[in-house]
Amino acid sequence: MESSPPVFDKPKVELHVHLDGAIKPETILYFGKKRGTQLPADTVEGLLQHICSKKPTCFTEFIGKFSIYLPAITGDREAIERIAYEFVEMKAKEGIIYVEVRYSPHLLASSDQNGPVTPDDVVRLVNQGLKAGEKAFNIKARSILCCIRHEPKWSPEVVELCKKYHNDTVVAIDLAGDESLKTDFCLNHQEAYKKAEQLGIHRTVHAGEVGNVQGIKEAINVLKAERIGHGYHVFEDEAFYKQLLKDNIHFEVCPWSSYLTGACTAPFSEHPIIRFMKDGANYSLNTDDPLIFNSTIHKDYKIAHDYMGFSEEEFKRLNINAAKSSFTTEKEKKELLHKLYEAYDIVQNTDF
After folding, report:
1. Catalytic residue, candidates 100, 179, 209, 226
2. What dihedral do alpha carbons 290, 292, 294, 299 form, nearest 10°?
3. Number of separate helices (H) and strands (E) present in the chain
4. Per-residue pLDDT for the chain (352 aa), expressed as one digit of tens each?
5. Which residues cross the membrane (predicted)?
6. How far from the centroid of its chain's Cα atoms is residue 78's Cα?
């Protein structure tokens, strides 16, 4: 973890971070021992050696990291609620005042001999943990439920869970998974996203991370996504990119993640995020999976500052855009924006 002072030590908004990629290693070890789950090490340092990415890899290898430690958490009611609570604590310590955390209810569910933990149970337990964390740490925490690209059979239930728990922390639906696999994943989830739109459920999609611009086009045109997770390959079609700029589509970008997953192979000084910044695009900075990347939000801000030329004014602008593009209620959005304007010493109704 970073030890130097933060380059932007003011209130922040984070919109793209995965709950199952943001678990404390101590908690993994605790539940691994309690449940008799085999882990590759019995110390924090040893566990992190197996989990953390230290250099760029392929996306499939990155996805494989989750299978190392998630069995210690999956299907355990106490563990699921605890990781949600500890997540809020973690983000509050980073100066985040509003966060949207995403996860797949199905990937944390289980049907073992101790009784099933259903996807519905998972959402309820996560909600309990997030709400308790909100009260304890004075932060707003909302959640996004993920469909999984290669499991379209789960998506109808994901939509129903979004409907059942709408604004009971749950504010949106997402599509995640290995984008590098060459199948019509967006089309496989079209009906679920169509129903989500009809129900007034907000929509984001992982696209253009390791896949090409076509995935972003499908996310926008087929799934009617309001935000794009990552989106680095959008510049493969300049006309399309300019249309997204005009439509004020929000990009949830993750600098350190994009380096370690192999999503962006260019040096940081040539990263696509620089283009977003120079074009005044609507985007946010996010951690994605801080456990696997052994990082906090401060690392992403430091990369943007040290290698991409980001100023404090740009950090303020992108956080205000993140607040405006958040999926919370209009009332909470106004309250969030007021807090940011006040903290940034900005008079409201400016260009921000």
Report:
1. 209
2. -50
3. 17, 10
4. 556 789 999 999 999 999 999 999 999 999 999 999 999 999 999 999 999 988 888 888 899 999 999 999 999 999 999 999 999 999 999 999 999 999 999 999 997 656 799 999 999 999 999 999 999 999 999 999 999 999 999 999 999 999 999 999 999 999 999 887 665 667 889 999 999 999 999 999 999 999 899 999 999 999 999 999 999 999 999 999 999 999 999 999 999 999 999 999 889 999 999 999 999 999 999 999 999 999 999 999 999 999 999 999 999 999 999 999 999 999 999 999 999 999 999 987 655 4
5. none
6. 23
Closest by Cα among 74, 69, 22, 73 to 47: 69
pTM of the model: 0.96
E strands, 139-285, are: 140-148, 170-176, 202-207, 227-230, 250-253, 283-285
CA distance 219 to 56: 26
209 is catalytic: yes
Question: CA-to-CA distance for 55 and 265, rounded, in angstroms?
Answer: 11
Give the Cα separation of 186 and 195 in Å (integer). 14
If we measure between CA atoms, which residue out of 348, 340, 300, 333 comes closest to residue 316? 340
Backbone phi and psi for residue 14, each to the nearest 5 degrees, phi listed first: -125, 130
Half-sphere exposure of 150 (CA within 13 A, CB side): 7
Contact 263, 233 (CB under 8 A): no
Could you tell me the end-to-end alpha-carbon distance of the chain, in angstroms, rounded to an integer? Answer: 32
How long is the chain?
Answer: 352
* Cα R_g (the chain), whole angstroms: 19
Question: Cα 106–113–46 angle (5° rounding)?
Answer: 70
